[in-house]
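Section 5.1 Outputs to date
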Amino acid sequence: MNHEPFYLTREEAANLLGLREQTLANWAWQGVGPPYIRINARCVRYPRDEILTWAAAHLVRPHEAEGCNQSFTGNGSKTRAAGA
């Protein structure tokens, strides 16, 4: 049985995502970031499933990223890709 809380505080949500609480607060103010529930002016909760879904939707696989014009050589240095 899963004992993880369904609703997370901003602190818990930030920890889950590896962010600062203030980042989530800023994103909420800007209208971006993961969905949350506003209980009152000073209390928000983040549904755990929504956090995980939001994070998965923002997953970037570097080899599939658009506009990537640099590659790494075997010795760890960067080189410009041909035609870049």
